[in-house]
Amino acid sequence: MTDVKSDLAPDGRKVTEVAVGVMVHADGRYLLAQRPAGKPYEGYWEFPGGKLEPGESIEAALGRELHEELGIDVKACELWRTLEHDYPHAYVRLFFCKVTQWTGTPHGREGQAFAWQRLPVDVSPLLPAAIPILEWLEEEGRE
To answer: What DSSP line would sit under the chain, residue for residue?
Structure first.
């Protein structure tokens, strides 16, 4: 049986597909970024990324978004987990990719703050869809 994802949420809204980077530093820290002013959930912390454009692969979207937001070039990433989350403003399908190699030093090109964090993280508030990812990372750390 094939696992085909619908373009529609259970309530009939269009699904917004998003590539998200879980940037893993060599010392085990993860990069979280703060949502900029004027966006839904302004000031909340999340893993960086952005929407897929029509016909764009997850990896290409992630590379484009991380370059636009952080000024880095992704050299190695792999799809790790997929999560759907129902926000009041959008139903999203999040493709979380572990990013293990990049060139350049991350900096907030859109004026957003960012922070390298260890588990448990000390930034807040967290975007709701980031919480299960942090839990999965914690589980992996115990294995």
So the answer is: ---PPPSB-TTSPBEEEEEEEEEB-TTS-EEEEEPPTTSTTTT-EE--EEEPPTT--HHHHHHHHHHHHH--EEEEEEEEEEEEEE-SS-EEEEEEEEEEEEES----TTS--EEEE-SSP---SBPTTHHHHHHHHHHHHH-
Strand partners, 53: none
Which domains can be identified in the chain, with CATH numbers?
Answer: 15-142 (3.90.79.10)
- As a whole number of angstroms, the distance between CA 8 and CA 91 comes to 9
Give the whole-angstrom CA distance, residue 130 versus residue 72.
21
65 within 8 A of 48, measured Cβ to Cβ: yes
Tokens coding 72: 């880095």
How many Å apart are CA 114 and CA 75, to the nearest integer?
Answer: 20
Model confidence pLDDT, tens digit, residues 58-87: 999 999 999 999 999 999 999 999 999 999
0.70 exceeded by the pTM? Answer: yes
Q: Quickly state the pLDDT bin for 1 (edges 50, 70, 90).
A: very low
